[in-house]
Amino acid sequence: MSKRLLFVTTRLPWPANSGRRTSLYHYCRGLHDEYGYEVSLFTFPEWDQERSDRDKPPFISRVHFAAPIGRLTKLFGLLRAFFSGRPYQSALYESHRNRRLLQRIIDGEQPDVVLFDMLRLASYMKIAKGRAKCVLDLDDLLSVRYARQLRAPDADTGIAGHYAGEMSPLTERLLCHGRIGRMILKSEQKRVARAELRFAGAADGVILVSAPETARLNRALGRPLAITVPTGVDTTAFTPTDGVKKSGTFGFVGNLYAAANVASLSFIVTEVLPLLSAPFTFEVAGPCPDEVRARFAGTKGLRLLGEVSDLAPVMTAWQFTLCPIAFGTGLKTKVLEAMAAGLPVLTNQTGAEGIGAGNGTDIFVLDSAKDLAAAAEMLLDNPTLCLEVGACARKFACTHYDWSIVFKAFGQLHL
């Protein structure tokens, strides 16, 4: 195999048990299987990931681990970012040691393409510039997501997300929530907006998952540099089963360490569920911190399942999924997986953004709590309708978002 690609990632792409890990996993698979690349990783593992290539999928040749970044280095990086106007999240991933390490890897492997995962790693792009084709995978426009988060009523302003696991509970509470959290988020939104344009303009190609965001970035850049590579779905793994549905049961999927998922769940619990008169069980699958579990304890009909080892059989037992999204950007993996699993999806404009499914046939797009509750009651009372709409949803997902179709989009980068 003569072509080489080095993927600089913010996490190990396995196990594929979250939206971003799943995308990275399949991106690597597609670039190897469909485009003939020998794929290597230079990865900054997440705090709860083992620094080991055990269970490495066969389509990844080698894994190089970034050197751990100490707290003092991160602190000085944040201070420099404060005065320079760079994004704080980028500062948490920067170190001279890792720049030298990446330089040695590029010297040794001589990749044809270096793919950088998300804005937070974009500063490493200058190491490969001029020596390989540099592609920046932004995933979505964080500046737009943060702006929506700031406008969302009663939304938690925390931006730590899964990174909060590395912080003490007190530090996370002080810096990532409330008035201080809002100030940091407002500052980060402006920093990210500037950085997105600067780094995208310096790249040889940019990837976004949503066509509307691709068009928005290209307008801002003044040239068609960004392409759309949608989030895909494993339509084989999320195949509807012949098993018995749990009567009166619907659900939501989301990592409850993420502020957007907590805000979405809060809206469902406080605004939608109280409007339901029929008996129901509302299951929520995804990692759940103790404070979130305590916050929603005692909610009628609610079952917080926590992280599940296999999401597909949990979802396929539901009658439908209720997932209005409080704020966010890009395509929602939870929506596409539910559609592939043959479930009717009740969501809002944010949740359906960029997907292109037919409202009322493939998906239900409803913005008010009253309309969402009415649709939920209609489906609870009509299991046959659930199956009919679910069949349309699966057909749409298989036709437009199966990974075999998504992989074709990489061709726009002239790989």
Explain what you see.
The protein is α/β, with parallel strands linked by helices and 415 residues long. Helix content is 43%, strand content 15%. The protein contains 17 helices and 13 strands. It has helices spanning 19-33, 71-84, 88-91, 96-109, 125-128, 142-151, 169-176, 178-202, 211-221, 259-272, 290-295, 311-316, 333-340, 349-352, 369-380, 383-400, 403-406; strands at 3-9, 37-43, 60-65, 113-117, 133-139, 205-208, 226-228, 249-253, 281-285, 302-306, 321-322, 345-347, 364-365. The strands form three sheets. Strands 3-2-1-4-5-6-7 form a seven-stranded parallel β-sheet, with helices on both faces. It has a three-stranded parallel β-sheet with strand order 8-9-10. Strand 1, helix 1 (19-33) and strand 2 form a beta-alpha-beta unit. Helix 7 (169-176) packs across helix 8. It is globular.
